[in-house]
Amino acid sequence: MGRQASASALPPGTQLRELRIREHLGGGGSGLVYLADHSLLGATYVVKEFLPRDLATRASDGQVAPLPGKEEQFEHLRKKFLQESRMLQELARPRPHPNLVIIADAFQENGTVYLCMVHEASNTLGDFLAGKPKLDEERISAWLFPLLDGLAHAHARSIWHRDIKPSNILLRDDGSPLLIDFGAARWVHPDSEKTLIRQMTPQFAAPEQVLHGELGPWTDIYGMAATWYYALTGRPPMQRPLPDDWQTPYLERCSERFLDAIDAGLALESGGRPQSITAWLALFGVAPSSPVAAGLRPAKPVDIKPRANPTWGMDTEAITQLGGDIDPGEGEPMGAKSDQSAVASSGLMDARQPRQVSRLAMLLAVGLVAILLAALGLFVWLNS
């Protein structure tokens, strides 16, 4: 049966073991997302199907296979996709955290891999912020601190999320937050796969993600601080340096201490940020595992206009870069994109870097002129 050069979604009614596809929710560069009903349990799940659109195709019989010449990349990313399921399983030990996405199952079918997550009646923080609400410290704290408690849970297992942003935070119908999409996460353990991909969303990515620096809890702290800076100001923290008085318009709604803690999480140098969730919570005046940090003071439910095409963790905003040499230290691609161009596109280039780029450009220009003059002189000499 001939293969079609497409990565079309499975139609409603398709049976995947005990799951029956109800609808296609959306997708991103690495696959597709469905809503599915379990025929035995009567439960509803979100199903992520690994189907990288640039590397694979689906036949008319539903089977997935890598495109010619893309087999090695496909297999590597398939292993990374499976690693996400193992990370989520690790996060559920000894019990699931109430503010982190919960995996229910993972299986292989149709030549690919499927992850099943517990479906939550919710919508994203990004959708809520689209209405340009005026948030105060009480509202933000009711979402932020439970999320930080979840991040501390992940960090204790050496898992860094690496793609925190409004669209990866769900707000449940009861008002509680949920951090989703660990597809870009790094799990530091002996059996973890070295990855050939670098996935990030430039507006919320820490500088070390762009510059291949050392990643750690401080990387997620930047992403979380950038998210809530955006929630307050309506813009990501791409202007550098941030204005000294950026906090002034929000002092009526937030305490100076709260805003200073957000600002500390936005330091460009990773060493200038709090190095752990515990240290960052201390700047807010909150102790780890306190009732506030553990989410025992839930946020009030909010009215959010539903998204027309929710992706539930299959990212359409993040940049995914494939290929390149593997850095033995971090396992990130070294040849996918120039660091300077990546930093410029994310707005994270500090005041020193433009001068370095200008100096390099000047030297290259002088060298080019010298070569052209030498070639011209040789030409004149040969024809004289």
List the helices and strands and how they pair.
Elements lengths: L14 E2 L2 E10 L2 E8 L5 E7 L5 E3 L5 E3 L4 H21 L11 E7 L2 E7 L3 E3 H5 L7 H19 L3 E2 L8 E4 L4 E3 L6 E2 L10 E3 L6 H4 L6 H17 L22 H9 L12 H8 L34 E3 L17 H8 L5 H31 L2
Antiparallel strand pairs: 1-2, 2-3, 3-4, 4-8, 5-6, 7-8, 9-11, 10-13, 11-12, 14-15
Helix pairs in contact: 3-5, 6-7
InterPro entries: Kinase-like_dom_sf, NEK_Ser/Thr_kinase, Prot_kinase_dom, Protein_kinase_ATP_BS, Ser/Thr_kinase_AS
Family: Belongs to the protein kinase superfamily. NEK Ser/Thr protein kinase family. NIMA subfamily.
EC number: 2.7.11.1
What does this structure look like?
Helices cover 32% and strands 17% of the residues. It is of the alpha+beta class and 384 residues long. The protein has 2 domains: 14-118, 2-Layer Sandwich (Phosphorylase Kinase, domain 1), CATH 3.30.200; 123-315, Transferase(Phosphotransferase) domain 1 (Transferase(Phosphotransferase), domain 1, Orthogonal Bundle). It has a 6-stranded antiparallel sheet with strand order 1-2-3-4-8-7, with helices on one face. Mean pLDDT is 78; it is low at 1-6, 189-196 and 319-363.
